[in-house]
Batch of 2 targets.
Target 1
Amino acid sequence: MNNFFQVAAGFLHLLYPKRCPLCDRVMYTPFLSWEYPICGFCREQVEYVEEPACKKCGKPLTDEQAEYCQDCIRHPHAFLQGKALWVYKGSAKASIHRLKYGNRREYGRAFAQELVRQYGGWIRRNGIAAIIPIPLHKKRRRQRGYNQAEIVAVEMGRLLQLPVYSKVLLRCVHTRPQKELNDKERKNNLKKAFKIAGNELQLNYILLVDDIYTTGSTMDGAAETLREAGASHIYAVSVSIGRGY
């Protein structure tokens, strides 16, 4: 029986070869093995977020003596702490673009596996009880066909054995894409953009998940809505993040 599954997995690998989400090259690893979702070359080349990093949002810092980035010094956030996997540049930036606009949904699952490998212990130590992806407005989701943050969140929930609530937080305003706006416009763009489905939120320790973190406006808008609904401890993770100063 084991031989049968090995042969079947071999055929599946030939038909649907596993590809590295960063370089998109075929990975010559067993089809059913997801221990290393990123190829060895890309693990060496991509810039993982490491210390020193902002103690609030998680942006990597150039000043080893600094505790917070300039964004977090100037603007308070509605979430308690954030973490991110990669700096938003190069292969990480290109990969997220393919996930969002090229229908490469399998990338989201690989990103989730890397996030759990990197921050699974931090998530457990903070007592996270539920995961909520940053939602898309129904119009944008209909155009794209899926929510990339939800794909990442669902796989993280499976790996961490945590519930994922994709329909608790709704995006009720069809906002302009954040990448088209400056810092001030980003914040105004997301005012009252989210709402809770229902009258009462029975969740306290929540992890918000998104693909990209820039100024934190999106995370703040979502976290503020959850706090107003009664959530007390809100944390955040993203696949990629800008650099702090």
Target 2
Amino acid sequence: MQTKIYRIKGKFVMGSEIQVFTKEYKAFKEEDIYEKIYSVFGSKHGIKKNQIKIESIEEISADEVEDPIVKAIL
């Protein structure tokens, strides 16, 4: 099974502010991305799942990757 690269766009509540985010991750399937986002934001920012709104998840090619860490992995 081959991993795919996904670009995730959304918003999360941090205190009284709404923060917009764009992340890129590798995963086997789109369903794995949800758990990855909830896990990362929960541990990094201490927020709960209901404070995160994922607006879009799109599969992208290796040429479209902008995140330097994901590029280095490729």
